[in-house]
Specification:
The protein is α+β, with helices and mostly antiparallel strands. Strand 2 and strand 3 (50-54) form a beta hairpin. Helix 10 runs antiparallel to helix 11 and helix 21 runs antiparallel to helix 27. The radius of gyration is 32 Å and the shape is globular. The N and C termini lie far apart (96 Å). It comes from Trypanosoma cruzi (strain CL Brener).
Length: 860
């Protein structure tokens, strides 16, 4: 079977003929082999033709392999042990049994599931009986109606078959958490599935037989314990709890229309809406808005941006290990938003890749960390590809692809040296791996090969020693600059994203125990390359108005936030800070306001941060230009909406500060505020009171720990290996090689030139409260009217933006006014409501002359 592996250059002619293809595996697991000689770590590989064990000090050095047809007898769980399993071989002659040990019971279940997928290849009796356990059934859909289907019980799962007999879904035994039924209908069977116990309801004649087979096969083939007892449910309880998600947590924060592709509908995609909450990704029916499914953001492993279809994206999950396929005209904006949601859920390893993740290259399930020994093997293979084992040496791109499949986006698990006389020098290995990647950069026009190389560089530079190596070794940074400029000239979105992501990693430490001197060296070298910075700014300007590069825009904004915004800007040289800010304003001034209204919160927030720092530390001319742009571009409307109604504290606080700057000594903006809010609310701007603490802005802090002398001292000792990149250079060849925060490190002080005097925190706090006074009626209804008016104007502005490239226009802010229909029936004289005034025991009238003058003209 011919199979093209994306990311590996294809060889042609005699060179291809000389190369023997590597055995393709569908999955790999790190296990321990138990034998009379001792215990040995092995990589247990499962493929379409055989299972094999590989020495963990290589990638392809096979120690044993057993073909399904001629050698393998069975692979079963060891009775009485939750983690052991045995492999029986020898179809001809005396059978031989070998024992292995997995790290966890769940990992053993997954390994056995992958082996049992091929059971029909090595078990003739099972092959004859595989179609015996098929049952007619009807599935209860989210439309609250039953649809005909069939269920087949296999060695690993309950398969759902279409009326034509095609497999359209499966429920793996390892993820079935319980079985129950509907109280009023004994012909029903409910499967509780997955980490959130999503419920699937079927109606059939022989429910008990199906339940018995599930219990029997899951124990016999997968080694699972008996399922727990689950109470029977009413139909109402099932409908309410079907997704396993609390309804209160299903309030969506953002929605994206998509088309869903699945085996159930292979020819015609289903219209769906992907909605996001704080913890879940929801799939909604586009016609009814009924929830179809829900997934934890923490369970997303990778997001795939298809290269073949500019609207296709795929989401790969850890548990269950499934892939969802969608198309959307807003694909990149959706991907950027999903990355932001995963980061907010502390899923820091999720990343966007250009091709489906190949589980056959990873030595453990996606949810399981890779052992340190495997990391060492991969680093050694980067340094010397011949150590990969196998019949021939691996090409460097092949090694890089294996490296990226096993090392998480957040970097190596172990990046510091261990204590011990025979412990490896992991820090030196990282340094050597980084050197190998830079010295073997691919000379190719294949963007996927280039992308893989930048992915690997990022995974090493996110470690302390990788980050410091780039700072200390001049040739490293020069090489990174050269390959980055060359890659950016490819004008390929995936390549550009990988380049900017790497540069962002070098702009600020993403690891603990960072050295400020090294941060300064990396950042100021990059910002000092004017040609590179100008190219990045032009990319930001050009991509800001398109929907096809939101991921690049997000990475570019992060890059400039690290350069200009607190708390990162303390390490930026003053002259570079000023020049980069000027170039940013000159090149992308208006585009920042467009991005501030982006559907992805991360993009909106980063653009707002840049606008804020320009207003705080820029020139007076830049300050006034951004004030004018806030009106002409309509940015004030979206920020008002965030400042009042957003539940995201960072977005809310940023919006409030921007509004304070935009209204500072700006009569047009102040007049606009008077047409939006009642005068009595605006009086709170003059208040001397302070709102509760959670209404005040929190100062942003780094989430990494700086270097300390205690950390360096902990590395000293007789049996402790210590490494610094400068050690491999000749004397005087390194720069910034001091391992301390000593002399020469200068933190740039901030120069905030504008100090607002109005009490904006109190103003926004009072907007959220109800008021019933003679001069102010403010409640849930008026807040709703305000929100609807702002949202309507935001929709008009978005429509105008989509047309502005044809007819440049600006927002007519002078005609915008918020009306409050709920107050139309209230008689109002001046700034007072007489009904409430006369109900007061001791009425007090502010501005009495105006009040009586207005009353005289209206009634007398």
């Amino acid at each position: 079977m011919d199979e093209v592996v994306l990311g590996v250059p294809q060889l042609a002619g005699c060179e291809a003929a000389r190369r023997k293809p590597f055995e393709e595996y569908t999955s790999r697991y790190t296990v321990v082999k138990n034998s009379w000689k001792g215990k040995y770590m092995r990589i247990f590989c499962i493929g379409p033709r055989q299972v094999a064990t590989i020495n963990p000090q290589s990638i392809f050095r096979v120690t044993n392999n057993w073909e399904y047809n001629s050698h393998l007898v069975d692979v079963v769980a060891t009775p009485g042990s939750p983690t052991d399993f045995t492999v029986t071989i020898g179809k001809i002659g005396k059978p031989e049994t070998m024992s292995f040990h997995c790290n966890t019971a769940m990992e053993r279940a997954e390994l056995l599931t992958d082996v049992q997928r091929n059971r029909a290849r090595f078990d003739a009796r099972y092959r004859q009986q595989v179609f015996n356990h098929v049952f007619d059934a009807r599935k209860y859909s989210f439309y609250e109606e039953y649809r005909n289907c069939r269920l087949r019980i296999t060695s690993i799962a309950v398969e759902q078959l279409s009326p034509e007999g095609n497999v359209v879904g499966e429920y793996l035994f390892m993820h079935i958490k319980g079985l129950t039924s509907i109280l009023a209908n004994p012909r029903t069977l409910i499967l509780l599935y997955g980490p959130q116990l999503k419920m699937h309801l079927y109606e059939m004649e022989d429910c008990q037989r199906v339940a018995t087979l599930i219990e029997e096969f899951s124990r016999r083939f997968i080694g699972l314990p008996p399922l727990r007892e689950v109470r029977r449910l009413t139909q109402q309880q099932f409908d309410s709890d079907r997704l396993g998600v609390d309804r209160a947590e299903m309030v969506s924060l953002a929605k994206f229309p998509v088309s869903k592709w699945s085996l159930k509908h292979p020819d015609t995609p289903m219209r769906r809406i992907l909605a996001t909450t704080q913890k879940y990704l929801l799939e909604l029916d586009a016609a009814t808005y009924n929830p179809v499914s829900a997934f934890f953001f923490a369970d997303i492993y990778a997001l795939i941006r298809s290269e073949e279809d500019d609207q296709r994206l795929m989401i790969q999950f850890k548990e269950p290990a499934i892939t969802k396929v969608y198309t959307s005209p807003m694909r990149d904006a959706l991907l950027a938003h999903l990355v932001d949601c995963c980061r907010a859920s502390r899923n820091l390893n999720v990343c966007v890749i250009a091709n489906l993740f190949d589980r056959g290259k990873r030595a453990a399930p996606c949810r399981t960390p890779i052992p340190e020994e495997i990391e060492s093997t991969l680093l050694n293979c980067l340094i010397d590809p011949s150590k990969g084992g196998g019949p021939i040496a691996m090409t460097f791109p092949e090694v890089v692809e294996f490296f990226n499949a096993n090392i998480e986006y957040s970097g190596l698990r172990l990046s510091e040296n261990r204590e011990g006389l025979f412990a490896e020098n992991r820090e030196k290995m990282i340094f050597s791996g980084l050197a190998a990647l830079l010295n073997n950069f691919p000379v190719t026009d294949d963007p996927l090969v280039v992308v893989q190389q930048f992915y690997a560089l990022r995974r090493l530079c996110v470690a302390r020693i990788g980050f410091s190596s780039v700072a200390v070794v001049p040739s490293f940074m020069k090489n990174i600059e050269d390959v980055s400029m060359k890659a950016l000239k490819m004008n390929h979105v995936a390549v550009s994203h990988s380049v900017v992501d790497l540069l962002g990693t070098l702009m600020t430490p993403h690891h603990d125990h960072y050295e400020l001197a090294h941060e300064e060296a990396n950042k100021n070298y990059i910002l000092g390359q004017e040609q590179l910075v100008i190219r990045l700014l032009r990319m930001l300007r050009d991509y800001a108005t398109t929907d096809s590069a939101a991921l690049v825009v997000q990475a570019l904004l992060d890059f400039f936030v690290y350069a200009l915004c607190p708390p990162y800007c303390e390490s930026t040289e003053a002259m570079l800070f000023t020049s980069v800010m000027k170039d940013l304003v000159d090149t992308t001034g208006k585009e920042l306001f467009l991005l501030m209204q982006h559907g992805c919160n991360a993009i909106s927030y980063s653009a707002g941060q840049l606008i804020r720092v320009i207003m705080e530390e820029g020139t007076g001319e830049q300050f006034r230009a951004l004030q004018l742009a806030a009106l002409s571009e309509g940015g004030i409307i979206g920020q008002l909406h965030l400042a009042i109604f957003s539940k995201n504290r960072e977005l809310r606080d940023l919006a409030r500060q921007l509004i304070a700057y935009w209204t500072y000594e700006n009569t047009d903006m102040q007049d606009l505020m008077r047409t939006i809010f009642p005068p009595a609310l605006l009086y709170y701007l003059q208040s001397s009171e302070e709102p509760p603490k959670d209404e005040m802005e929190e100062e942003r802090q780094r989430n990494v720990v700086p270097m300390t002398s205690a950390f360096w001292e902990s590395k000293l000792g007789w049996f402790k290996k210590r490494f610094h990149p400068s050690e491999v250079l000749s004397k005087g060849a390194a720069q910034n090689s001091s391992p301390s925060q000593g002399d020469g490190v200068f933190k740039r002080p901030r120069h905030v030139k504008v100090k607002t005097t109005l009490n904006w925190p109190m103003f926004f706090y009072e907007i959220k409260r109800d008021h019933l006074r003679p001069e102010l009626i403010w409640n849930h209804t008026t807040r709703t009217e305000l929100r609807e008016a702002l949202e309507a104007e935001m929709r008009v502005l978005r429509l105008g933006m989509s047309l502005r490239h044809e007819n440049p226009t600006s927002w007519n802010y002078r005609e915008f006014e918020v009306r409050y229909p709920s107050l139309d029936d209230e008689l109002r004289i001046g700034q007072h409501y007489p009904r409430l005034l006369f109900e007061m025991k001791d009425p007090a009238i502010s501005r009495p002359k105006e009040f009586f003058n207005d009353m005289y003209h209206r009634f007398l």
